[in-house]
Structures are given as C-alpha cells and as structure tokens.
Write the structure tokens for this entry.
Amino acid sequence: MSAGRGLPAGTLTFLFTDIEGSTKLQTELGTDRYQDVLETHTRILRDAFKDGGVEVRVEGDALFVVFPVAANAVRAAAAAQRALATATFPHGATVRVRMGMHTGEGRPATAEAGADYVGIDVNRAARVAAAGHGGQVLLTAATATLARADLGEGVSLRDLGEFRLKDLARPERIYQLVISGCVADFPPIRSLDQTPTFLPSQPSTFVGREREIAEGQRLLAGTRLMTLTGPGGTGKTRLSLRIAEESAHDFADGTFFVPLAPITDPELVPSTIAHTLGVQVGGSEMPLSRVLDHVRGKRILLVLDNFEQILPAAPIVGELLGASPVLKVITSSRAPLRISGEQEFPVPPLELPDPERLPALEVLAQSDAVRLFVERAMGVRPDFRVTAENAAAVAEIVYRLDGLPLAIELAAARVKVLTPQAMLPKLRQGLDMLASTARDLPERQRTLNGAIAWSWDLLNDNEKGLFGRLAVFVGGAMLPQVEEVSGEDDVLDVLSALVEQSLVRQSEIEGEPRFRMLVTIREYALLRLAESGDAEEVSRRHAAAYLKLAEEARPHFGSGDQKRWLDLIDLEHDNMRAALEWTISRGHAADASRLVFALWRYWQRRGHLVEGVNWCDRVLSLPAGEVPPLVRMRAVEAAGGLVYWRADFDRATALYSKQLEIAERIGDPAEEANAAYNLAFPLGLPLKDAGRAVELLRGAREKWKRLGDRAGVARASWALGSQLQIGPRGTIDPAKLEEALASSEEALATQRTLGNRFDLAYAQHLNGCILYKLGRFEESRRVLLEGLTLFLEDHDISGLVLIASDLAELAAAEGDDERRAVLTGIADTFARRAGTGLLNNFEEQEDRWLPRNVPAALRSALERGLAMKEAEAIAYMQDREISRD
C-alpha cells in the first residue's frame, strides 16, 4: 500500500475503521501495554487491506483506506473482521473494530490544502463508520450496489433501513455485512433516529470545533443546564446543535430544538416550547402547566436557542428542570440565564492563524477559521483553493474578522466576485461588504452589523453609553483607564453587564482584569459613539488617560521592574498610538511632546525606532508657541535619541545641540549635564569631534558630581570609557584600553548598587568589548553573556543587536571566523528588526563585519545566522544547543 501524496482519484470506496471503547481499553491496560495491542490490531488490518487498498492515514486506533474497486473493499473488510475474531491479542485484551464505507468521488486535496481528500463523500463514509458497533461493518447503498455481485464466500448483505446520521443533511440507507464466522447481530446503529430527535437539518456542513464539541459534551454530562454564551456570529446555534446531536443517544424521550429568536415576550416561552413538544393546550389551560405535566419524569434534552432577548423567562427553565430529574437543557444566549445550577460555556472564536507568522500552507489549511472560509468559498466557487498567492490574504481576512463564523461565511461568499487579495483592502476600510443575499436567513444573520445590533437593542441607556465609549480603546484596556475614560461612577456594574451580554470580553493580565471588544463589535460601537455626539470628549479623556500612564511608566524603563512596565506599554501600544494621533491631529503640541518623551525609550528598547522617529517628526512640526520650554526640550531629546540609534549622527547632533541650547536657557544644571552627555555620542562615536565629546562628558560628570547624582556620574564614566576604546582590535594603545576599562568598571559597580538594569546591561556590553580588545577572552565572554541575559529578560532588541555583534568580534579575536560569520548574520537580523543603523558605524570605526563584508567561503555560515529563528539565535549566542522539534 502507498501512503501520502500520489493518492488515487475518481470513483473510490472510502473505508474507515476504529476500535470500539479504545479510551477505556487504554485506561485499563496502561500506555505501554495498550501499544502492544494497537500494534497487533494495525498489523492485522494492514494485512487484510493490502490487496487493492491504499492506506491514506492512521490516527491512533483509526485507519482510513481507499479502494478503487468497491467489491475489494467489502472483501477486505470481511477478511479483516474474520482475522480479528480469531486473533489472540497481547495481555488478554478483547478488541472489537467497527468499520464503515461509502463509495463516491475521490478527489485528492492539493499539497497546499494540507488534507488528503476533499468532498462530502469522505465525511459520509466517516459518519457511517461512527454509527456502527465493534465487530460490525456498515456500508451505504452506493457501495452495496457496486459490490453486491462479488461479495465473496460466506458474505451477504442485510438492509438495515434509512437513518439520519450526524451532520449529514439527508437520510442514508445503510447495509450491514453478514460475515460467516463472525457476530451477525448488533444493537441498533447509532443514529439520530435511534431516539426521537427533533433537530433541524443544516444546509451546510459543520466545520471544526472538535475541542468545543467534546468540551460541551463533558460539561453537559456534569450539569443539567448548560448555556453557550458569546456575541452574535460566534456560531452558538450550530455548536449547540452539534453537542445535542452527539448527546442525543442519552435521552430516550427525545431531543428537541426550540427556536426562541422570533419572540420577544417572555410570556410566550411556555407556548413556544409546548408547540415544539407537540403538547396540546386548551383555551383555559396554562401552557406552562401543560408543558410541566408533559415532561415530568421524562429523559428529554431541550435546546433553547437565542434566549438573550427573553432573559426574564429564565425561571421557566428552572421549573422545567424541577419537573424531571433526568431532563437537561442546552441554551444559547448572548448572556447567561443566572439561575441555580447553570453551567456557562463561553464559545470562543474559531482557531486563527497568525498573519504575521504564516505557517506552511498545509498547516494553515488545517486552521478551523481557514477551513471554514475555504469550504464556504467553494460553495460559490468550486475551484477555490488556498495557494501561495492568496494564503496571506486569507489568513488576514479571518484574523481581522476575529474568527467569527458568521463574519467568515459572509466574507467567503464574496469570493464569487472578489479574490481574497482584492477583498482584504475593502475589509480594512470597514465591514459594510459583509452582507448575505440568502433569502432564507433571519435578518440578524444577513449582515454582521445586524447580528451585533440584535444585542445592542437589548441594552439599557447606561449600557449603550458605555458600549459606545469603550470603542475608543484600541486592543482593549485595563480597568483604571476604562474608569478614567467612561466618566461613570458605577462603571464596574455597567461593564459587568456588557461582559455578560458578550459584547465585551474579559481576560486577566498579571492578576488584573482587561477588557476588550472583538474588532467586528468595536467597529459597530464606533458608529454608535459617533452618533452619540460624545466622540470628541471621549477621545480627549482617552488621550489624557494614556498620557498619564506613559508618564507613570517612563521612570521605570531603567529600573529593576522595567520589564513589567515595558510589557505593559507593549500591551497598550495601540492605545498610545491612538492618543498620539488624536493629540497631534488636534494640534495639542504640549501633550504630544510629553507623550513622545515618555515613550521614546520604549520605542528604542522594543524595536520601534522608525515609528518613533516618525511620531517625533510630526510632533516637532506642530506650532510650539504655547509649549513650555522644558516640554519642548524633552521632545527634542526624544527625537535626538531615536535618530542617534538610527545612526543618523548629523541629525542627532543638530537635535542634541538644540536640547543643550534650551537647557542652558532654562538654567537647570541637571538638564545641562544630561544634554551635554547626549550630544557627546553623535560627536564621539563616529569620531566626528572626539575631543569635544570628551570635553562634554567630563563637564557633565562634574555637574552631576556637584549635584550628588551617582547615576549621572556613572553614566558619564561609562560614556568616557566607551569613547576611549573606539577602534579596531589591535590598533588601540593598551594603556588607553586600561583607562577605558577603569571608567567602565566604575560605572558598572555603581549601576549594580543602584539596580539600574538599562545602564547595567549597557555597561556589560562595553566591558565585554574592552576585555576582548585586551585579549581577556573568557572574562569578555562571561560579561557579554551577563549582558545578554539582562537584554533577553527585558526583551531589549537594540541591546541584542549589540551583544550579537560583540560576540562576533570576540569570535574573530579567538580566530573562529565561521562563528563570527554566523553571529554577523544574527546581529544583522536583530538590527533590521530593531531598525537601528549602529552596526554600519561599527563597520567603519571598528572594522566589524556586516553581511556584505563576509568572505565568499563563509557565506553559508552567514546564511545560517540570517535564517535562524530568535530562540535558535539566542541559543547559538549562548553557545548551547536547543531542541528543534
């Protein structure tokens, strides 16, 4: 048998097998002994299927095999059951295998699709197999018709009748193989007809959600009331139906679906349930009493769909549960019912790919969100596939739609006239294109806005007000910022109500609550905010709240807890961007200046240099007449720092000179020392005016000494050491290097006592450089790796650039050019990610390698470094191996 690609196509018989009760068997035997049993089982089946069968895949105890000839599939299944019946399994195990088959069109999937076969016929065969019992072979009428004339000796067919199978739109006629020497009589097959099941058939297949179906079954087993909650469009109805289908066999008196969306009066709930159950209600009779009498003592599963608009009717559900201890209820609602014994099951969006880190096509195609998009797209364009050309667009579409099934289905329907690449720009402009022309859908499911408006209409005025105001947050917000922006005294109560209504999602960040809207819901909320007339005031409060947060965070960017604050600004970066955009667009130059100063170190540390420069340019171009000199000076300092890290030394010199000029005009010695310190770097590092750089640093150090600023003195000492050691290895006077080392170690000792992680890490970078230039390689390595640890812990991308380049130079000093080339590639990757241009300066001043300088003989080593993922690159820098699983 063959496996993998090269699968047969055309008319094929699909055969599925699996062991009945495999989980129980594995639990009883233990993993090692169960593996012995599984190996014997698989060997027997493969031996029986080898003549005429092509093995497609094996998953645990399940096999999927295709046969070009239906009769061969039937004969092979019979042979397999006979062999299993006479086999002796290890450890005394009893193994019963159920098998099912169906004949239809076999269409192998493309490699990009990441599947084996596509089409409903494969699903039909799998459902037939799942309906059987251990030792039983079931087949559809299509297979029976083709194989009937050549079943093989001792094999006959038994017509079991028509059955409704899970997730198949129409009933299927099922036959059983009667095999001489094997058991012939089995319990009724597992179908939706086995017990009274009154669930609506679905016009389209159900895609994915295997984990949620299993979790729903598990929760239902332990409760009598389970409520599926989530915003409109998450697929609560379809999921509740699938859980009910899978659970129906436990309810001998029936499984019933009660659609509640059409009613808005809670008083109508009992009569609606009565109608579904077929309960006759006379003119003077109370519908609830008749329903309670009808369900008393019965084992029934009720699926109450769309409960959110009739929540006052929740006590009726409690009365139903009280009427029968074996009755259970599944509800779908945008808010929980809040009655005793309720188990809430929040329905998550579909599993999403990361559009920033796309996996291989075959992996991408297995994402539930992508699978749904592809299947619904094929419904309007049968030749649609995920390809290398459209994969990124498909991934971003489902990502932008938050994995909401309704939104994805509406978007996929547009594939008839738009490619995913053409659709994406329209989605970026808004969700208006997401509308269905299907006449059989309720209004709330024809557009995404309609689905959200259904929830909006159920809110009270306070909830509607906060719902609109929350739209100002980009990517969510923590409670303090929500409170500042809302302007409400009882914001927590109203916020809790919106969470209950599934319009806002709550998560936890370091023990504190965070609230966010799905992008699709936020867009609707923005419309409501604009209609309210409050948008300008809400945006003003938002900008003020995030200016306050940024200024609170800034002093921590060098402290012992800096990672927590850097991570927090990472989390709030989109809100910071929105605050900057608003302040700049309104011409609020002072607030915008304060924001860029508060954020510039974050931008430098976390690799946002280009973006930071752009924000500073926009801020500094605003009229500055009303901006206090100190505030203006700090915005200039922020711009100077960012362009310095971009290695734009001429512009950095101009900006830092402006900073020094304003500081001298203000007359604050601390500000003068800081400005002089800053200006020394673009003058000294490129050796443009090294003499003046040293003069500025010595002057700054003296001012800081007089002020008693130990941290400032240490920074100036560090900078002097840095200036003294500039130059290629082997070209600097050792006495000068020793002087540089003394300055650097003085700075390092002070920073250790002060706990300033930022300056401490950069002091280790400098110490490591001086030490390898002095030939003290092991000491250099130790210090550089200490610096690497700090930069890693704080996720300082710019620092990683420097350490990778330093380690490359250490390798060069030790004569290991291959390692030097790999590390050159790693440093370049980090530099491109950070947006820094300092490596170009190192090439000029220190003769360090850039990728363009690496000799041809070492290009493969360079390429290795350039291609490494971050974890692999860090491990290489640390000279250790990592698992590549």
